[in-house]
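step=encode ok
step=design start
structure_in=
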């Protein structure tokens, strides 16, 4: 069954542009997940944006049966300090169905909200475990209290009693001082109601089941609104958390400065068991009183995965065409309980970062190719891509991952030769390349590894040769020699083509010249006879030649 969730993020100032926006009002982004149009909710007409390019997944309609019984379990809330302009939220399945979400609410709060000593930092995340409003009233959000928007519109669950006959409610309409102030901006109305212990049960105790071995920041709220207490010393009590006195001789009037004045006490504790117990035990005067309780889990900053390895995995994701079911968003190793599918992580203690030491992506129906950027995963020890349809050449860069101990690429469609660089993998103990379309000679360095009890499998590659169990290779040429021969053959081919073209053109010129000569032959013969006749005529005239004086003038006739 799907559990639908409302996620609320209380964000501290995370960008200069956001700080500028804060002058007009705190930043707020509310997304109605899966919605195809904007929605406004009553009675505050709060705007929820349609889900356009914000989330992934398949839209579905939520039903009332999807909600849990208690209101504060219908959503989760956390305080996060953002260092840049983006926020990435990932949901991981815990084995109980696919994750689902109704809406996401992102609200800006004060930079020092929920500041606690001595280990507060911007990297710490505070997850809301419980937030209770004691006494009269009903469960409300901050907007229902008329609270300052910088308070983050927190949800206060109404808490009617600590137990049967253990307390009685009190409420006033008097204005409460020192309430809605930075950095937490608690609503003033919150302090107008409280629970007071009884004489039959003077101690007030609240028990909450929690996760063990975690740190919790406890915030306790008080205001002296009981008319029976008018001055200091009339109500004094100790506050114990899991049996340890954390606040001794608490006097609300004295510590806050006056009646009807807000007082907030905070203590961060480590809980080793499964429960957190808060006890108010009276010491002098009137009985114990409390207005509200907040319990936040302190999530310490986790080491992140090396950014170079994250980018290498993103490249691998694209190259293999990983389906959406793999996710592969956010940090591969954080949180530790939910690493990326098929990714094994190891903490590099010397650098304080997580690194990738294993990839288990066998029998996943993957296609594509193995990118050269896989060599950026410098700490890989095991790679298993067997039983897929990954093709192309094995990248030579893989030979630089000297930590590799197991490489299983069997039963894929890899082709080409095994890179010579694979011989540099001196830590390699298992190599399965069987069931591919590889060819050429197995690198000699890899063959030598068989003498060191390494387990290699090259079978079912019809083109491989060169080691026992495979065919004998013919004259082996290196890749460079093969390239040189190919280039030489190509140049020779071009030379032959050029010579053939030149010979053909020369032949055509000769034939054309002969054809022209043949057509001109009759005319040449006539010119030859004509020239000969002229010559003969001139020769016969030489003997009969006379001067003009002898023959008289030459007459021109028509």
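sequence_out=
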């Amino acid at each position: 069954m799907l559990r639908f969730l409302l996620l609320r993020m209380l964000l501290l100032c995370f960008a200069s542009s956001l700080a500028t926006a804060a002058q007009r009002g705190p930043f707020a982004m509310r997304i109605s997940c899966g919605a195809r149009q904007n929605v406004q909710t009553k009675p505050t007409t709060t705007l929820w944006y349609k889900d356009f390019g914000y989330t992934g997944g398949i839209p579905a309609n939520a039903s009332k049966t999807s909600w849990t019984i208690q209101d504060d379990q219908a959503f989760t809330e956390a305080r996060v300090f953002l260092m840049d302009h983006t926020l990435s939220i990932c949901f991981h399945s815990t084995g109980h169905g696919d994750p689902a979400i109704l809406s996401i609410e992102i609200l800006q709060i004060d930079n020092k909200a929920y500041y606690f000593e001595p280990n507060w930092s911007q990297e710490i995340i505070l997850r809301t475990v419980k937030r209770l409003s004691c006494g009269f009233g009903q469960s409300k959000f901050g907007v229902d209290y008329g609270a300052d928007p910088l308070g983050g519109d927190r949800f206060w669950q109404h808490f009617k009693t600590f137990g049967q006959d253990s307390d009685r409610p009190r409420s006033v309409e008097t204005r409460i001082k020192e309430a809605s102030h930075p950095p937490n901006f608690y609503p003033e109305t919150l302090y107008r109601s409280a629970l007071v212990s009884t004489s039959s049960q003077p101690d007030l105790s609240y028990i909450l089941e929690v996760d063990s071995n975690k740190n919790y920041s406890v915030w306790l709220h008080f205001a002296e609104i009981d008319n029976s207490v008018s001055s200091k010393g009339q109500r004094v009590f100790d506050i114990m958390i899991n049996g340890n006195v954390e606040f001794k001789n608490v006097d609300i009037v004295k510590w806050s400065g006056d009646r009807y004045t807000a007082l907030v006490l905070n203590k961060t504790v480590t809980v080793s068991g499964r429960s957190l117990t808060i006890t108010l035990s009276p010491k002098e005067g009137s009985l114990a009183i409390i207005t509200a309780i907040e319990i936040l889990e302190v999530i310490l900053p986790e080491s992140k995965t090396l950014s170079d390895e994250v980018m290498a995995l993103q490249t691998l994701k694209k190259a293999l065409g990983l389906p959406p079911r793999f996710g592969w968003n956010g940090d591969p190793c954080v949180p530790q309980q939910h690493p990326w599918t098929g990714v094994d992580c190891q903490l590099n203690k010397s650098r304080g970062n997580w690194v990738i030491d294993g990839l288990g992506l066998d029998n996943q129906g993957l296609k594509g190719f193995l990118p050269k950027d896989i060599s950026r995963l410098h700490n890989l020890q095991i790679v298993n891509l067997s039983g897929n349809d990954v093709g192309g050449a094995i990248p030579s860069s893989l030979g630089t991952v000297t930590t590799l101990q197991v490489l299983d690429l069997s039963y894929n469609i890899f082709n080409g030769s095994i890179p010579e660089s694979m011989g540099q993998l001196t830590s390699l103990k298992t190599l399965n390349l069987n069931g591919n379309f590889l060819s050429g000679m197995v690198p000699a360095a890899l063959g030598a590894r068989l003498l060191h009890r390494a387990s290699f499998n090259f079978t079912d590659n019809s083109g491989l040769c060169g080691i026992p169990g495979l065919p004998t290779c013919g004259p082996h040429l290196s890749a460079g020699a093969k390239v040189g021969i190919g280039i030489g053959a190509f140049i020779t081919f071009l030379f032959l083509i050029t010579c053939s073209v030149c010979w053909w053109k020369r032949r055509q010129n000769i034939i054309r010249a002969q054809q022209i000569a043949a057509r001109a032959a009759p005319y040449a013969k006539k010119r030859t006879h004509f020239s000969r006749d002229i010559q003969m005529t001139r020769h016969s005239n030489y003997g009969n030649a006379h001067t003009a004086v002898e023959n008289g003038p030459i007459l021109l006739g028509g």
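step=design ok
step=annotate ok -> Confidence is low (pLDDT under 50) at residues 1-5, 13-23, 65-69, 537-558.
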